[in-house]
Design goal:
- With about 120 residues, the protein is α+β, with helices and mostly antiparallel strands.
- It has one domain.
- It is built from 2 helices and 5 strands.
- Strands 1, 2, 3, 4 and 5 form a 5-stranded antiparallel sheet that branches.
- Helix 1 packs across helix 2.
Length: about 120
C-alpha cells in the first residue's frame, strides 16, 4: 500500500514521526553579522542523548531588512545524513528543519534580540 503525502502535510507528518520515535531537537541562535545574515544551530537528541554531529547543525539565512524577511542560504553539516534520519526522505528532513529554524530566527529578530538592523 502506498500513501501520498502532499508538501503541505510533510511538516506535520514529520513532526509526528520524530515524536513517535522519541527524537527531540533544540534550536538556538548562533550568530549574525549585524547587517544581512544570521545563523541558527540545531542539536538532535534521542532518549535525551545527543545524536549526530556533536556541535549541532548550522542553518544560514540572509536577512532583508526592508521587508523583515529571512531567506534560507545553506546548512552545514548535512542534517539529513544523521543516522536517525536515514530511513526518512531527505527532502522532508531538510524542509522541516529549515522551516523550524526560520520560524525561530524570525521570532528572535522580531523580539529585538538580534543585532541585525531593521530599516
Amino acid at each position: 500500500m502506498r500513501y501520498i503525502i502532499t508538501e503541505s502535510q510533510s511538516d506535520e507528518v514529520f513532526s509526528r514521526l520524530i515524536e513517535a520515535l522519541n527524537i527531540e531537537y533544540d534550536i538556538y541562535y548562533q550568530s549574525d553579522n549585524g547587517f544581512d545574515s544570521i545563523t541558527a544551530n540545531v542539536r538532535i537528541f534521542k532518549n535525551e542523548k545527543p545524536r549526530g554531529y556533536y556541535h549541532g547543525y548550522e542553518f544560514y539565512f540572509k536577512y532583508d531588512s526592508r521587508f523583515n524577511k529571512l531567506t534560507y542560504d545553506g546548512r552545514y553539516p548535512k542534517i539529513e545524513n544523521t543516522e536517525i534520519f536515514q530511513s526518512m526522505p531527505q527532502s522532508m528532513v531538510v524542509k522541516f528543519f529549515i522551516n523550524k529554524t526560520q520560524e525561530y530566527l524570525q521570532k528572535y529578530i522580531d523580539g529585538g534580540y538580534s543585532t541585525l538592523r531593521r530599516k
